[in-house]
TrEMBL record:
PANTHER family: SULFUR CARRIER PROTEIN CYSO, SULFUR CARRIER PROTEIN SLR0821-RELATED. The lineage of its organism: Bacteria, Pseudomonadati, Pseudomonadota, Betaproteobacteria, Rhodocyclales. It comes from the Bacteria. This is ThiamineS protein. Transmembrane segments: none annotated. SUPFAM superfamilies: MoaD/ThiS. It holds the Pfam family ThiS.
Amino acid sequence: MQVMIPSALQSYTGHSKVEAVGATLADVLADLDRCYPGIRFRMIDERERIRPHIRFFFDGEQIHDPAQALNDGGELIIAQALSGG
């Protein structure tokens, strides 16, 4: 599936769009981490929960659970809130 990478994480991928595979969000993130080591930890915490500043959208629907099943061939958008002062 095609994965849209936010600019804050493009230092890992070098691209705004990459390909990944997996039956669930957790599987897709594991595949991304195999290709781009360290990227998963920026999105999933030590308790295997989605970090508060990260949102995942699959084919327009927000995903709240890493165990959520994903259809093959869809589009995953990773959105990251930015803050600062």
